[in-house]
Amino acid sequence: MAVKYGIIEAEKKPRPKNTTLEEAMKAYIKERDGFISPSTIAGYEKFKRNTFQSMMKKNIFTVTDDQWQAAIKAERKLGRSPKYIKNAWMFAAAAIEKAGAKRPKVTLYAPENNERAYLTHEEIDKFVKSIHGQSVEIPALLCLSSLRRSEMLALEWKNVDLKNQVLYVKGATVRGVDGLVTKPQNKSKKSRRAVPIIPPLLEAMEKEEGREGTVVKVKADFVLKYVKRACKEAGITVVDLHGLRHSFASLAYHLGIPEMIAAEIGGWDDLSTMHNIYTHIAQSDIAKRSQDFRDYFSKDDLQNGNENDNEK
Questions:
Q1: Residue 196: enclosing H or E segment and its boundaries?
Q2: Contact predicate 232/179, CB 8 Å
Q3: 3-class secondary structure, 233
Q4: What is the CA radius of gyration of the chain?
Q5: Which of 43, 218, 284, 302 has the maximal Cβ count within 10 Å?
Q6: Residue 195 and residue 302: Cα distance in Å, rounded?
Q7: What is the DSSP letter of 197?
């Protein structure tokens, strides 16, 4: 009655908000475009196009945790890796929170321990011989010298000092929404570094004519295909371009270079990657030495030893 006769006002119920996941993602990307790496923006766009498609038109303020959990399971059934799903979910969750909705509570899949393939020091020799004189020799040897794919593509001749046999890693060429984009910043502060030019790379670079602009003129995908083919033909572990970077760590271990120094040359902020490779190779060495120890006491070796003693 009080409300009816205007003595008091009726309590106004707030209208439920209605923002779809697609709208939240678009707003999140738009707000960051121009402020973060073009490759990160391209990654966000890829997630928006390819993941959680069943959730795109749903209201982020009313969708349930169970619905989100089902969407995550659906991504796994499509063959997505736990790491890929996690990255896609972190982007989706950040967009949801930025739009003002509550972050859904979900359970993600445990990460898979898939180590990236790399070459041993014995395989590196075979690999270098297999690409000698080929069009991919320089880019492949740059990756083997610890450069990331993006750093290899961005390297300019003005940052190559052939006289002192050193190259200066600056900038990165990454994949943006509309193609490749070169930015002055590297992945991290330690990524800007001086890298010694190994002899086979020096030889290949000295043969190059017209040393202007970027060092690498071929596309990274072409280099990748050739590298994999060269590995197969040489009968060695098949690696990708980042696997060549990890192979640098393998060679550094073989040469007895301390982890900290190898990490500085390779531009690793986090020592965990370098340490994992060093530890893995160390375990392989231990296994090999253990086998050598067992082989020494084989019947044939002992018999030969006894015969030698008798001759003496």
A1: strand 193-196
A2: no
A3: helix
A4: 28
A5: 43
A6: 49
A7: P
Spatial CB neighbours of 310, under 8 Å, sequence gap ≥ 6: none
Q: What is the pLDDT of residues 123-157, one digit of tens each?
A: 999 999 999 999 999 999 999 999 999 999 999 99
Question: 73 pLDDT band (50/70/90 cuts)?
Answer: very high
As a whole number of angstroms, the distance between CA 1 and CA 168 comes to 81
pLDDT bucket at 167, cuts 50 / 70 / 90: very high
Alpha carbon distance 86, 90 (integer Å):
6
> Could you identify the residue written with the tokens 């982007």?
91
DSSP state of 54: G
Q: What is the DSSP letter of 194?
A: E
Six token digits for residue 20: 């779809």
- 213: its two tokens: 């602009």
Identify which has the larger pLDDT, 172 or 301. Answer: 172
Maximal C-alpha separation, the chain: 125
User: Distance (Å, rounded) from C-alpha 262 to C-alpha 258?
Assistant: 6
> DSSP assignment of 98-162, as one string?
HTTPPPP---PPPPP--PPP---HHHHHHHHHHHTTSTTHHHHHHHHTT--HHHHHH-BGGGEET
Q: How many CA atoms lie within 13 A of 201 on its CB side?
A: 23
Q: How many helices (H) and strands (E) does the chain have?
A: 13, 5
Burial classification of residue 261, based on how many CB atoms lie within 10 Å of its CB (0-12 exposed, 13-18 middle, 19 or more buried)? exposed
Q: Rounded to whole angstroms, how far apart are CA atoms 79 and 160? A: 43
- What does the buried/exposed string (b/e) look like for 271-298 if buried means 16 or more CB atoms within 10 Å of the residue's CB? eebbeebbeebeeeeeeeeeeeeeeeee
